[in-house]
Amino acid sequence: MFVELGHFTLLLALVVACLQTALPLIGAHNRWSGWMAFAGPAALAQAGLLTVSFAALTYAFVVSDFSVLLVVKNSHTLKPMLYKVTGVWGNHEGSMLLWCLILAVFGALVAMFGGNLPARLKARVLGVQGSIGVAFLGFLIFTSNPFLRLAFPPMNGQDLNPLLQDPGLAFHPPFLYLGYVGLSTSFSFAVAALIEGRVDAAWGRWVRPWTLLAWLMLTIGIALGSWWAYYELGWGGFWFWDPVENASFMPWLISAALLHSSIVVEKREALKSWTILLAILAFGFSLIGAFIVRSGVLTSVHAFANDPERGVYLLAITFLFMGGALTLYAARAASMQAKGVFGVVSRESALVLNNVLLAVAAFVVFIGTVWPLLAEMAFDRKLSVGAPFFDAAFTPFMILLALVLPIGAILPWKRAKIGRVIRPLWLAAAAAFAIAALTWVVQTERSLLAPIGALLGSWLVLGAAADLWTRTGTDISRKLRRALSLPRADWGRVVAHSGFGVTIIGIALMTAWESEDIRVAEVGESFTVSGYDITLANVEEVQVANYISTMAEMRVARNGRDVAVLYPEKRVYPVAGMPTTEAAIDNGVFRDIYLVIGDEQQGGGWAVRSYVKPFANWIWAGAIIMAFGGALSLSDRRFRVAAGARRAPQGVPAE
Amino acid sequence: MIIRAVLLWCLLAGAAFAVQPDEVLDDPALEARARDISSGLRCLVCRNESIDESNAGLARDLRLLVRERLLEGDSDEEVVDFIVARFGEYVLLEPRRDGSNLILWLAGPALFLGGLAVAIGYLRRQRPQTQSDALSDDEQARLDELLKD
Fold first, then answer.
1. Nearest alpha-carbon partner for B109 in A567, A361, A129
2. What gap in Å lies between CA A356 and CA A221, rounded to an integer?
3. Domain residue limits, chain B
């Protein structure tokens, strides 16, 4: 009964989305305020209906209602409750329902917090947002309905993919979707502005928090996925340049560019048409990402749902929205005259460079991702593009970005005298070089990777510190007070940029310095890896709720002192008939010890893999710091749109 | 990230993890070269995973083949050519820098230079106006008009 209610509200949400698209857009065109005012309640209603629908599906999973096909395919009564709930989005249909729900929630948030938006702009934004809802709800209902019933329900389900039964992966998709779908709001603002034919500083201010929110969710989502890959895949890789990863990385790069260029629109009323283009492209890459992930066209890999029919539908959505928006852009972009002008040496030019680098980096990821397809279609070459290409072609742009970032962040708006501005940075640069030299001296490898990473990373962190130092005046005794009273957006910038530096340090040092040991070890045997004495103390089989585990007990010591006792596992999930490896990791600030137990060998003993991974956690710590910086910036007073809304007089005329 | 069918396939193939202890060569220098070469070769059944990372049986066969060739005294290039001759350029994770692949390799740098050129053009075009921050007559007139409302 509750399931039927969910199905019904889903269909109703599609109807509401159609109305939310048509009425406000027509109303805005004809200046009919009643029609325009329909947008807000419609957006709220759509979000409410989809919440009920999502709750109904969740209920079906929680009570293991095996008359629902989706539950049969993706759940099992023995599964822990947490994974029954996360199983709702651990499959194609449920994850698309989550996608639609988030889309509607973003629309509702615009309706709720957009009180100070001009009525026509607001109607148009919500209308465009509604049209995206129509497209995806149509996709959901006509190609992947999650509420299909079975006439003869089985006794039990087929279990959720065991790899998904993990906290890291369970919460990775919702964050990614918040990011992907959050960019739809920037897109709706861009298209609405194009329809209006007007972009001004206020527009920049309205669109920035949404971009920031989407970007910070994407950051968390990508970091969670990467962290999951690190501990779950059994050898500690953290990034694979897989098409599906790239699908989330491209919108991340573009939205990072967008949130920087929208600052220029807000502060200086320049780069308007470029910012609009970025807003369109950022969501475009989200759509392309959805297409890549769901269609399996790029010979990727995704475990759930590779269905050509769905792929065609998603491609059609992508073409419709991108084609429509870009056509509109071509027609209207010329009318967006820049107001603010700026010198070659200025914050604006630095942000232009930032945008060029980020956009080119995103393009490199894009062409690398689609090249196998293009090469096969156009040149009849069957080839692969893997990590070595991306490492070689993508990294230089990030290095350039890291080099210029601290200088750009410290430049004043409009124009600057470079010599005076960068004076406080000399100390940061000298310290960064000293750290790089130290890195070179302590390492035994002759690779430049670690010193360069240390140089760039510490340059970013120290450069951010110098940024803070210069912004707090010359009086040393008052610096702390002044620092604390700086706008949150300034703190956000400093924190996010440091986070970028921390991630660079983590990636470089871990890649350069990791040590690996592969061997057969008898129970009781000890061996040494990178100064750590590791003992395989015991191996036993354990039966846990819905899987059987082969669990090793391994003791780690250093210079005779115990460091940790770790329990790496090999699990077999009998229902899904699938083994997984569960590495055991001793996390540390400066190193991770990463142990994996393998098969029992014929001649006795167990295959054992041990790694010592220096600075591994810095990779994700940096990402979390970046996201935290984004959150700080988001909490800045000038983005508190709701506060402004309350002060705004009622019934503001359209123009 | 995310769920790799790759991984599922490979796990289903049975082995617990990539390079097995019995594969490792006794000579550390040779083993290091083998690891280096294998991380650039694609596991043919897994897609987008190198044979060094893959758990599939076929990847193991390829790893053993690489080591066999190295023990025979082949150089790194000879080993790679040997594998490519049998499995096609599909097996290379780093596409060769030749023919149509130049488009792939040069696209990024070309776009970067193009982007820089456009950006510099944009900066130069607006440079003369930076001379004055004062309002032009037109702007002043418009401002007056706006203030009247």
1. A361
2. 25
3. 5-91, 101-148
Q: Which residues pair with A361 in a beta bridge?
A: none
Interface pTM, i.e. ipTM:
0.84
pTM: 0.89
**pLDDT average, residue stretch B96-117:** 92
Amino acid at A476: I
Mean pLDDT, residues A585-589 taken together:
91
Contact A593, A568 (CB under 8 A): no
CB distance A518–B94 less than 8 Å? no
Convert the pLDDT of each residue in A251-291 to its tens digit: 999 999 999 998 888 888 888 888 999 999 999 999 988 88
In the chain, the amino acid numbered A496 is A
Judged by CB atoms closer than 8 Å, whether chains meet at B108 and A393 is answered as yes
Show Cβ contacts of residue A179 under 8 Å, excluding neighbours closer than 6 positions: A214, A215, A216, A217, A218, A219, A221, A248, A251, A252, A255, A286
Per DSSP, the three-state class of A554 is strand
A residues 366..385 contacting B (CB < 8 A): 367-368, 371, 375, 378-379, 381-385
Burial-class residue A82 by CB neighbours within 10 Å (0-12, 13-18, 19+): exposed
CA dist A573 → A79, A551, A553, B16, B75 (Å): 11, 14, 21, 14, 44
Range with the poorest average pLDDT among B43-52, B106-115, B127-136: B127-136
pLDDT for residue A127 is more than 90: yes
What is the band of A304 on the pLDDT scale with cuts at 50, 70, 90? very low
- Measured at the CA of A340, the angle between CA A338 and CA A342, to 5 degrees, comes to 115
How far does CA A643 lie from the centroid of its chain?
A: 28
% of chain A residues with pLDDT over 70: 95
Tell me the pLDDT tens digit for each residue of A429-477: 999 999 999 999 888 777 889 999 999 999 999 999 988 888 887 777 7
For residue A607, what are its two tokens?
Answer: 């295959």
Whether A596 contacts chain B with CB within 8 A: yes
The span from the CA of B57 to the CA of A474, in Å, is 66
Higher pLDDT, B137 or A36: A36
CA nearest neighbour of B7 among B50, B55, B41: B55
Residue A341, token pair as written in the block: 């002008």
Confidence of residue A100 (pLDDT cuts 50, 70, 90): very high
Q: What is the DSSP letter of B100?
A: T
Homologous superfamily assigned to B5-91: Cytochrome C biogenesis protein (1.10.8.640)
DSSP letter at A601?
P
> What is the 3-state secondary structure of A212-262?
HHHHHHHHHHHHHHHHHHHHHCCCCCCCCCCHHHHHHHHHHHHHHHHHHHH
Residue A134: predicted pLDDT: 95
For CA atoms A269, A273, A274, A280, the dihedral sign is positive
Report yes or no: A365 and A230 within 8 Å, Cβ to Cβ: no
A308 touches chain B (CB under 8 A): no
The separation between the first and the last C-alpha atoms of chain B, rounded to the nearest angstrom, is 57
The token pair at B10 is 């490979």
Contact between A360 and B112 using a beta-carbon 8 Å cutoff: yes
CA distance A202 to A269: 9
Query: Out of A344, A364, A579, whose CB is closest to B108?
Result: A364
The answer to whether the Cα torsion of A205, A209, A212, A218 is positive or negative is negative
Q: What is the pLDDT of residues A177-194, one digit of tens each?
A: 999 999 999 999 999 999
Over its C-alpha atoms, chain A yields an Rg (Å, rounded) of 27
| Separation of CA A370 from chain center | 20
Please report the pLDDT score of residue A648 as a whole number. Answer: 40
Please indicate whether, in this complex, the C-beta atoms of A235 and B40 are within 8 angstroms of each other.
no
